[in-house]
Amino acid sequence: MDMLERFIKYCQYNTRSDATSLTVPSSHNQYRFAADVLVNDLKAIGVEDVVLSESGVVYGKIHGNDGSIKNKVGFIAHMDTADYNSENIKPQIIENYDGNDIKLNDSMVLSPSQFPSLKDHVGKTIVCTDGATLLGGDDKAGIVIIMEMAKTLINDPTIRHGEIRIAFTPDEEIGHGTDHFDLKQFDADYGFTIDGGDIHSVTLETFNASKAAIDIQGFSIHPGGAKGKMVNAIDIAVQLATMLPGEAKPQYTQGHEGFYHLESLNGNCEHATMHYIIRDHDHTKLKDKKNYLKHLVETMNIRYDGAITLKMEDQYRNMSVVLKDHPEVLETVENTFKAMGWSYTHGSARGGTDGANLSFMGLPCPNLGTGGYNGHGPYEYVVVEQMSAMVDFLITMVSKETL
Ligand SMILES: [Zn+2]
Questions:
Q1: Do residues 104 and 166 both lie within one domain?
Q2: Do 37 and 175 have their domain in common?
Q3: CA within 20 to 30 Å of 167's CA: 74, 129, 180, 306, which one?
Q4: Whether residue 57 is found in the same domain as residue 167
């Protein structure tokens, strides 16, 4: 099976994760894909010690063929796809892309006027959707890149390399990709998630992330006789929302600017709830944002007699804090970019990665791209040449000459 065949095959499996599910993994489809496809294909390639954990994580090893290399390097990709229609995915292959609109179906086009980065891929092979589903290249592309790396290393003993570890995780898209990740089983010194985006970028930092749940207890009474008695919960919610800095919202921020994002507001006069996520790359600034919200609630509670309850919870932290104590990881990446003759940039994710959690669990873990774009929706596409370039990149990274 060549790389493209494998990619098309994997994309067709519906492995959507489900944030509302209480099972582990969150959807049975993911477990079936892991058990029936990933485990068998890893074994067929010759990957050793292939294990599928009860929680749906697939582990494998490629043993080293050069004892002088001491680093154990791990590669991780996620098997689930985002919260978007994933039934009956029909990938379309566009060979020798001409730079014009790509017709997805009768009413939808994938257009460089909307997505200018398409212009960078003229002459290349693009895989896109039929407009009805996502593609699932996020992150089947990462899985396939790791599989192809494994195949090449196992088939070509002239490439000298150390111990290599592989893992495919479920439920990354719903924030539970590392809940059941067994670092002992994985047994690597450091790792890389291979997930989404430009292949000329290494992601060394993520947001610091917290969430806030706000509960407002009102007092409902007939509006005609409400003076001095009614406490309108949803009115308090609206007041609170407008007192947060108006410019610190996702739609007005970029780069290293953090935000408060109001995810939901529900309620009536009697009772209201609000859910916020709070994000900042800078840990002190995140703390300031949390303190400001706390202060605001305390102040409003004086006026509204304790009607507002605020609960905040930290979600993940910026992995750059961990990575700066492991310069050898960045050095490996930089050596590889140099060996490939590629220019590269240090990216900062405006979100989290499984690698952020893994870094704090003890496995330094930046992210590398796959050549996949516009994930999580019908305009998702991958560039096949970038996927194969990434296979070469990983092989170069683990080979004796680079490490
Ligand atoms: Zn992803």
A1: yes
A2: yes
A3: 129
A4: yes
Given pLDDT bands bounded at 50, 70 and 90, which one contains residue 179? very high
Q: Which residues does the annotation mark as catalytic?
A: 80, 172
Q: Distance from the CA of 78 to the center of ligand 1, in angstroms? A: 7
Domain co-membership, 312 together with 326 = no
Digit-coded pLDDT (tens) for 187-236:
999 999 999 889 999 999 999 999 999 999 999 999 999 999 999 999 99
For residue 134, the CA-to-ligand 1 centroid distance in Å is: 12
- The rounded Å distance from CA 196 to ligand 1 centre is 6
What mean pLDDT comes out for the span 359-388?
97
Q: What is the CATH number of the domain that holds 222?
A: 3.30.70.360
Which domain range does residue 199 map to?
3-206+318-398
Per-residue pLDDT reduced to its tens digit, 93-120: 999 999 999 999 999 999 999 999 999 9
pLDDT band at 86 (very low <50, low <70, confident <90, very high): very high
Q: Is the dihedral of CA 234, 237, 239, 241 positive or negative?
A: negative
Cβ within 8 Å of residue 371, ≥6 positions away = 141, 198, 199, 382, 383, 384, 385, 386, 387, 389, 390
Tokens of 80: 């689930």
Q: Does residue 403 belong to any structural domain of this protein?
A: no
Q: Are residues 364 and 324 in the same domain?
A: yes
Indicate whether 244 and 298 sit together in one domain: yes
Distance 67 CA to ligand 1 centre (A): 34
